[in-house]
Amino acid sequence: MNKSELINDSLVELNVEARSKEEALRKIADLVLKAGCVKSAEAYYHGMMEREKNATTGFGSGIAIPHAKMKEVLKPAICVITLKDAVDWKAMDDKPVQLLIALAVPTEHEGNFHLKLLATLSENLMEEHFIHSLLSASTKHEILTTITDIFTDKGEI
């Protein structure tokens, strides 16, 4: 899969207003719907909320990785939003979240595809430089470049 098919300008939004985790997840679901990646924003939202019930996706350092693997997802996507004000996410480090990297994966998509995405993101979120690049990004282009650079140089994921 080509990187531009997975994340592009239509899947990145900066300075989003949300007062809660639920409101932030609804913003993500709406954005992913507008980008044509899901059949239903409501279904995708509920999928992400179900995942949050199992364990927090608040990774730490102000970042969360909400995700859902479900049949309502039409095509895999990475959606990134920055929040105008950080919100409580019950993150692993108990710090509020300001940046969300959401994954949408179709149920039938390539076995462990979602695990590969999560592993790549998690591995890079251990790197201070990667975290700093994301949190200090002031344009969609900076976020796109930071995210796509962690995947293979061949342009395929």
Question: Topology of this protein?
Answer:
Blueprint: H1 3-6, E1 12-16, H2 21-34, H3 41-54, E2 58-60, E3 63-64, E4 67-70, E5 77-87, E6 97-106, H4 113-124, H5 128-136, H6 140-149
Parallel strand pairs: 1-5, 3-6, 4-6
Antiparallel strand pairs: 2-3, 5-6
Describe the structure.
This protein has 157 residues and is α/β, with parallel strands linked by helices. The chain has one domain (3-149): Mannitol-specific EII, Chain A, CATH 3.40.930. 40% of the residues lie in helices and 22% in strands. The protein has six helices and six strands. Strands 1, 2, 3, 4, 5 and 6 form a six-stranded mixed beta sheet that branches. Strand 2 (58-60) and strand 3 (63-64) form a beta hairpin. Helix 2 (21-34) packs across helix 3 (41-54). The model has no long low-confidence stretch (mean pLDDT 90). It holds the Pfam family PTS_EIIA_2.
Provide the CATH superfamily: Mannitol-specific EII, Chain A
The overall pLDDT average reads: 90
- Tally the beta strands: 6
* Terminal residue distance: 5 Å
Uncertain segments: none
Q: Structural class of the secondary structure composition? A: alpha/beta
Instruction: State the CATH class.
Output: Alpha Beta
Order of helices and strands: HEHHEEEEEHHH
Rough outline: globular
Helix content: 40-55%
The CATH topology annotation reads as Mannitol-specific EII, Chain A
Total count of domains: 1
Which architecture per CATH?
Answer: 3-Layer(aba) Sandwich
Strand content: 15-25%
**Tally of separate helices:** 6
